[in-house]
Design brief:
By secondary structure, the protein is an alpha/beta fold. Helices cover 29% and strands 19% of the residues. The strands form 4 sheets. Strands 1, 2, 3, 4, 5, 15, 16 and 17 form an 8-stranded mixed β-sheet that branches. A 4-stranded parallel β-sheet has the order 9-12-13-14. The protein has a 3-stranded parallel β-sheet with strand order 6-7-8.
Length: 457
């Protein structure tokens, strides 16, 4: 996918222009005449004065800049649903420097990108992915195994699979991801490669692994809990991820692995270290404990009631339901090694999860789009939005969940989630009206800019 350059903007005189030409030298004055001999000779005439040199001309060459100006047919603000017709967005390096309709704000020499056939939106945020959950399916390689964190035989192939997942995600219009658990060596490399422009993909915030409790059956020492958080800080985590329950692949039953006091200490320690924290809690009982602890986001829970929802609102916790990932598991039972009779259980879980999302939306809980993408689930990242509409959201509310709320869940709401001055230049172009039909966002992404760079697919 390439962008079209309409023009390079030219301008008149100014500091950016080439220096004007040198004026012509003035002429030399003539020599005065000699007086006649005899008598008093007449005085010789005075020679003519030489002319002044001409003034150098003003330059009128092209300006030099890497700024870009993108023209949209419409630009939608998911915060309030406002629309700018014939919008212009100017980018400087990786940030947005202007949003409006004033042609005069296009910098001299800027590259002008014609996306007038499309509607512009902020780049989307997938608030729950696992880029390192990969497995090599080539003949002769080991099968998928949760025990080995889904690592395949060849580490280089493992990294290539993660790069492919990042590219597939970017194609869906997702320009920011929050990786909530996985192999830190891979995630660190992937995050840095994308940031440097070496690998096409979305911006990556990562938990660099995460925290789970399989060691202490009764209680976890307080110092151990603090040390687990501090270790993630030293690894370079952007967010702390906690698995607060464990589930079996045989029955899909889950049970809590932390007490409320333990979860509260993890939350408080993460916040003291300046990091947001997300808690994985499938089980209803686990979710109640996790919500009371006050994390920045809670992942997956079903069975939420109005009390749970009120507690999320009071504590500012964002709900990431990840409804669609169970659809993905249900449709791929054999690949994941699930028994055929679990299909009905997955379907029941989907319906329970959808009911919780509906309840949360009705009472005003902030929700964020999270795909929980693994394996080939990448590239289907935005299908969660269809479930949000089923849960009662308007397309605008679903857009807000996929942009502003996702950014808030990582504490990046002043840089990500809007097309606004000072924000990252993460912008997508969709074909159709996203305020009328959410499928325009799910299936209609046509152009993607991430950090001021236009993706070419």
């Amino acid at each position: 996918m390439a962008f079209t350059i309409l023009a390079t903007v030219h301008c008149g005189s100014g500091n950016e222009n080439p220096t004007g030409g040198t004026g012509a030298a003035g002429g030399t004055g003539g020599t005065g005449g000699t007086g006649s001999t005899g008598g008093n000779g007449g005085t010789g005439g005075t020679g003519a004065t030489g002319g002044n040199g001409g003034t150098g001309g003003t330059g009128g060459g092209e300006c030099m800049t890497t700024d870009k100006a993108i023209r949209f047919g419409k630009l939608v603000n998911p915060e309030d649903g406002s629309v700018i017709d014939n919008a212009i967005v100017v980018t400087h390096e990786d940030r947005i420097s202007y949003v409006g309709t004033d042609e005069k704000q296009i910098p001299c020499g800027a590259s002008v990108i014609d996306w007038t056939a499309y509607t512009g939106l902020p780049g989307l945020v997938d608030a729950h992915v696992h880029f390192s959950y990969q497995t090599d399916q080539e003949p002769g390689t080991l099968p998928w195994s949760r025990v080995t964190w889904l690592v395949n035989n060849d580490p280089y192939k493992y990294m290539d699979l993660a790069r492919g997942a990042a590219l597939a995600t970017l194609k869906t219009g997702v320009t920011t991801t929050i990786d909530k658990g996985g192999r830190d060596f891979l995630l660190m490399n992937l995050r840095d490669e994308i940031k440097a422009g070496k690998t096409p993909g979305p911006r990556v915030f990562t938990a660099m692994g995460g925290i789970s409790n399989y060691k202490y059956p009764n209680s976890v020492p307080a110092q151990e809990l603090k040390a687990w958080v501090q270790l993630l800080v030293l690894r370079g985590a952007d967010i702390v991820k906690v698995w607060a329950d464990k589930c079996t692949d045989q029955t899909l039953e889950c049970s809590p692995t932390f007490t409320y006091d333990e979860l509260k200490l993890l939350v408080d320690t993460a916040h003291e270290e300046g990091l947001p924290i997300a808690i994985h809690a499938y089980h209803q009982d686990t979710a109640k404990l996790a919500i009371m602890a006050g994390p920045d986001s809670i992942e997956h829970p079903e069975g939420l009631d109005t009390v749970d929802c009120g507690n999320m609102i009071d504590r500012g916790t964002i709900y990431v339901p990840t409804i669609d990932h169970n659809r993905y598991y249900k449709d791929n039972l054999a690949f994941f090694g699930y028994a055929p009779d679990l299909e009905q259980k997955f379907e029941a879980y989907i319906q329970d999860n959808l009911a919780s999302a509906t309840q949360a939306h009705l009472v005003g809980v902030k929700m964020a789009m999270g795909s929980d993408a693994v394996f080939t689930g990448f590239g289907e990242n935005t299908k969660e939005l269809a479930w949000f509409v089923q849960a009662g959201m308007t397309p605008l509310e679903a857009l807000r969940a996929a942009t502003i709320h996702g950014a808030e869940s990582i504490g990046a709401q002043n840089e990500i989630g809007k097309v606004a001055v000072g924000y990252y230049a993460d912008i997508i172009a969709v074909e159709g009206d996203p305020l009328a039909d959410i499928n325009v966002v799910i299936n209609g992404v046509r152009k993607v800019m991430m950090g001021g760079r236009v993706a070419e697919f």
